[in-house]
Amino acid sequence: MFEEYKKHVAERAENGIPAKPLTAQQVSELISLLENKQCEDREALINLLINQVSPGVDAAAKVKAEFLDKIIKTKTSEFGITPEDAIAILGTMQGGYNIQPLIDSLDDTELAQLAANKLSHTILIFEKFNDIEQKARHGNAHAKAVIASWANAEWFTERATLDEKITLTVFKVPGETNTDDLSPAPEAWSRPDIPLHALSMLSSPREGVTPDQPGQYGPLTRIQELKARQYPLAYVGDVVGTGSSRKSATNSILWHIGKDIPFVPNKRSGGFVLGGKIAPIFFNTLEDSGALPVEVDVSGLSTGMLIDLYPYKGEIRNHHDQTLIASFSLKTEVLLDEVQAGGRIPLIIGRSLTARARASLGLPVTSVFRKAKEPAPSSAGFTLAQKMVGRACGVEGIRPGQYCEPKITTVGSQDTTGGMTRDELTDLACLGFSADLVMQSFCHTSAYPKPVDVNLHETLPQFITSRKGVALRPGDGIIHSWLNRMLIPDTVGTGADSHTRFPLGISFPGGSGLVAFAAATGIMPLDMPESVLVRFKGEMQKGITLRDLVHAIPYYAIKQGLLTTEKKNKRNIFSGRILEIEGLQMLKAEQAFELADASAERSAAACVLRLEEENVAEYLRSNATLLRWMISQGYEHAPTLEKRIAEIEAWLANPSLLSADENAEYAAIIEIDLTEITEPIVCAPNDPDDARLLSEVARTPVQEVFIGSCMTNIGHFRAAGKLLADAKEIPARLWIAPPTKMDAQQLSGEGYFNKFIRSGARIEPAGCSLCMGNQARVKEGSSVVSTSTRNFPHRLGTDANVFLASAELSAIAAMLGKMPTVEQYHWHMDKINDTREDTYRYLNFHTLAEYQVQEKRRIDVVTI
């Protein structure tokens, strides 16, 4: 094992990255070597045991903790590790399997004081607090000292604070840095391997950045040159962090600008990110990772500059002559505590531990921690979102700017982030979920998996279900199309995918760390955002689709000066705010999701819609049937699914929906008159904010068309199939990807797949397909029309120019090989206008025999 590992170290060193952490099997073999009295590499092996094993409840950490516990209990030193050393090493493991041996050692006269010291600086205690409290009440002086230390927040106060002045070297990426730039989708397979994945950061050429090897390695040489100037790097950009996959993007940045975390292999924390605008979820993910994100005018900064950052004064000055370059205000003073604690999540957990210890000792609330500024008192009513979050906090509503920790009812995880979420959960020492329902999908990697993906498919489901989560199967389809079927109205959720946006209730998507925290604890930290109201009025015009209404939101915002496409000094009224939509109450839940889903492209923190109670009830009846069918098909964790079915049925027995107060206040109100929208609205390459009328882009040649992604439902495919019914050998390459296997089965049974094949289309397995661009990709440099979520440069294919459009417009463009004129579009749409009721039927599982049969069969068994 040791010889093989040394080879692995050498291979990784060729790429300038450290070796992977040890596996449980490797730790077991390492221990066998240590136990061998003839061992010649004892010192090197002990160093590996201390520094190359992931902490928390990683399987390797369990083997390590059990070995160290044996040393303590047998009082042996023959393996080169004394009992005192074993206590010290256990104290570096953060939480989980190391805690019980340390608690047991509180009764050991020789080791108790050392064990108490290590416990005092450990915050991932959770239910083990009761064991220590019990020892303290029975007179154990060392247990009392641990409780007192927690009460005094010594775990926090003994950590270094931010300096008054921090000298940094600027690394600036002009324009917009989206998370595809920082974490390229084709390299998604390597995301859990942070050092390896970070090599691809900024690997696509762009202004101000020259990658070492385009498409594979980013500007590593330039970064190393800047780091060699003695001072840490600050990542600087005009707009930073738009898009998805934000945790892996954060990991990549911090690998280049952060600091190693002692005893935690291959992870870094801290660092400074300065942006004219920082996307809200990315901002939060930086917080979670212990970095300091600062929104500030960066126009005076350029790569290579030496600056002094004054975090308390809110100033950036030239290091050489102290000329003031820019001033700023921190989003909240609590950021300073977060950096000191090592991140927002450690701060929240530690504060909770301190509060619990003080309550145990009968002490008042501590004044050690900074508090978020409370919003000014208001007599205004509450918006719909404010009421939903309020209910999750046990109050009527939450005001904008108010810090809160809402109860999280539903959590989603997808496969390209699932490996990272698993790592975060093990770091948090989570052995069971506190959130009511946590679901894992395999939609981004199931179609064309790499070996590393296959391994994830085999190992991640058991990890999730053993913690009482629900695991889907490869080939089932897209996370959002499934997770939406598991929702409870007016509740709060989250997910490690920016498109975790609920048609019922509200979701605040986050990075993998925050999602793991929400799953483990059942709550999430939230500084309540303001809301922007989009109010639709009038009648929808003939031939206009919901996707056109999606794009009407940025189109009207641009017209009103609330949104700009220029990245420098960009204005975006939606960024970091909640998008609330009114005037479309008649929508089905499947349709509502199309609008909510696209709020991610607006960089909105969340989205809510008011729907009619009857349509919500219909959706929930369908969903309960699907969940029962899942249980009959052997999906786990069955008790979690049964509990969710009971919650759905409880709502159906007493239906009610929250609504906004008439006197609610909004940061802005955008009114959209549906009678004014008489032609399709598309988003032009390569910016989802760049909304334009079809007439502005008509006749643009089109080589490829993609109809798929979470922005589609079965109605879109029927519409496309009817439009393509008489087409043969269409000029554009057409990709068809149903969102779920249920959609695929229904479409196939209705004959639509046959129509698609006759037209020359390529039918993809149910899942994300082209949307993320990490598996199949369009031809380099091609012109594309797509129903996918976003159209950032290089996302669907290298140098591809991608329009975002409805499924209907996409199908017409595929037939013509170009963008149609408005007249051509309406001529084709007339073919399906008379059959709208049949076309836009949705999957109501409680009316489909194949799902009802399974449900009835299960009921019969239960009755017997």
UniProtKB/TrEMBL annotation:
Domain Aconitase B HEAT-like span(s) in chain numbering: 4-156
Any one Gene Ontology molecular-function term assigned to this protein's record: aconitate hydratase activity
Domain of life from the UniProt record: Bacteria
InterPro entries attached to this UniProt entry: Acnase/IPM_dHydase_lsu_aba_1/3 (IPR015931), Acoase/IPM_deHydtase_lsu_aba (IPR001030), Aconitase/3IPM_dehydase_swvl (IPR015928), Aconitase/IPM_isomerase (IPR050926), Aconitase_4Fe-4S_BS (IPR018136), Aconitase_4Fe-4S_dom (IPR036008), Aconitase_B (IPR004406), Aconitase_B_HEAT-like_dom (IPR015933)
Pathway(s): Organic acid metabolism; propanoate degradation; Carbohydrate metabolism; tricarboxylic acid cycle; isocitrate from oxaloacetate: step 2/2
SUPFAM superfamilies named among the record's database cross-references: Aconitase B, N-terminal domain, Aconitase iron-sulfur domain, LeuD/IlvD-like
EC supergroup of this enzyme: lyase
Domain Aconitase/3-isopropylmalate dehydratase large subunit alpha/beta/alpha residues, every copy: 471-817
Domain Aconitase B swivel: 168-382
Sections of the chain in a coiled coil: none
Enzymatic reactions: citrate = D-threo-isocitrate; (2S,3R)-3-hydroxybutane-1,2,3-tricarboxylate = 2-methyl-cis-aconitate + H2O
Matches recorded under Pfam families: Aconitase (PF00330), Aconitase_2_N (PF06434), Aconitase_B_N (PF11791)
Cofactor: [4Fe-4S] cluster
Protein EC: 4.2.1.3, 4.2.1.99
UniProt keyword terms in alphabetical order: 4Fe-4S, Iron, Iron-sulfur, Lyase, Metal-binding, RNA-binding, Tricarboxylic acid cycle
Similarity remark: Belongs to the aconitase/IPM isomerase family.
The protein, known as: Aconitate hydratase B
Record organism: Phytobacter palmae
